[in-house]
Amino acid sequence: MARGKSGKPADGIRLSEFEKTSPAKPLPIYVLKGTDPYLLEHGRAHVRKIAIGDADPGLAVLDVLGPDAVLADVMDALRTLPFLAPRRLVVIRDAEEFLEKPARKDDKVRDVLVEYLDAPSPTGTLCLEAASWNTSTTLHKRVVGMGALVLCELADPGSLPGWLMAQARHQHKKKLSAAAAQMLVEHLGTDFASLLSALDALALYAGREEAIEADDVDALVARGHHERVWALCDAAAERNVSRAMELLDAFLAEGMVAPQIIGLLRPTYKQLLRIKALARRTDLPHAMDEARVNYYARDRVRRALAAMSGAHLAAAYQALVDADLQAKTTPNERVVLETLIHRLCLPEALGAVAAGRGSSE
């Protein structure tokens, strides 16, 4: 790995290595490069830990989407003295659009940030999240020289089945066969959150059995549920709560538990959310090509994307993330699942959360 004059990797540090670091002094800027929400969340959490420690994020963190971010507000937040916290942290997700916004005269936001980093606030930390990152810019040179570029992405896709086998062994005391691990990756791709959710569901499904085999993955994740997942997605798009509840009851009648049901839904909403984002810079067919949508599923994807805005999809995916956590900590799974159905069908019920996390078409 090439290194800059500062001794830091010029092309970034892997997330796993970054999470092991605990510098005595927070850096003025971090860039989290990647697309997987699970890996980005881990990177964001470590930056937050470094910057503000145990302080209340509500008092010390400004977290905004790039398309909605305003340069003046970002600068004010970075330069405002922290309250009941050691620093102020500004997180900008989907930062590419923010960096390319016009600033003053012929400058873009990225040019203003370069000047800011010549004399950064001693109590402010900026964290940019980006799916892609241009290493030929002056801003990149500043990041390498005085901050950190963190690669929140899979270094070797071929290692993912082995990583899943290790997770099954360490987290669940189960032996996940190589064939089962490969089948999970083939079905769910490299979405870490969905893979781990499916692994949780498989561990429950296996019960007292020590091994999780390919047949278990086929029965629980791959076979039979595909049509019902899309039917539930259609019901949510149509805001048909009663139909979605019927489909939920069908899952429960088969003996499935909340983590299993959530694990089936997350990959579909994750894929729709990604395609919606890709379609902002290209046409829908090319977006589906880039997202590797199977031919037979394309009509369903088109129908779902036409019916649900980016804000609806973002709110729905956040509802699934929240429900996954609640299902692991709340004894009444039925309440968790019924709440989830209402949030999937009626995203406006999220109020400020949907407005803050969502994005327009």
List keywords for this structure.
361 residues, alpha/beta, Zinc Finger, Delta Prime, domain 3, 2 domains, six-stranded parallel beta sheet, 19 helices, 57% helix, 9% strand
SSE order and pairing:
Elements: E1 13-14, H1 15-18, E2 29-33, H2 37-52, H3 57-60, E3 61-65, H4 71-79, E4 88-93, H5 95-99, H6 109-116, E5 124-130, H7 138-146, E6 148-151, H8 160-172, E7 175-176, H9 178-188, H10 192-206, E8 211-212, H11 214-222, H12 226-237, H13 241-253, H14 258-278, H15 284-290, H16 298-307, H17 310-329, H18 333-345, H19 352-357
Parallel strand pairs: 1-6, 2-5, 2-6, 3-4, 4-5, 7-8
Our count of helices gives 19
End-to-end Cα distance, whole Å, is 39 Å
How many structural domains does the protein architecture include? 2
Strand percentage lies at: 5-15%
The overall average pLDDT, rounded, is 84
What composes the largest sheet? 6 strands, parallel
Task: Trace the largest sheet across and list its strands.
Answer: 1-6-2-5-4-3
Could you tell me the radius of gyration in angstroms? 22 Å
CATH second-level architecture of the largest domain: 3-Layer(aba) Sandwich
Structural class: alpha/beta
The top-level CATH class of the largest domain is: Alpha Beta
The CATH homologous superfamily name of the largest domain equals: P-loop containing nucleotide triphosphate hydrolases
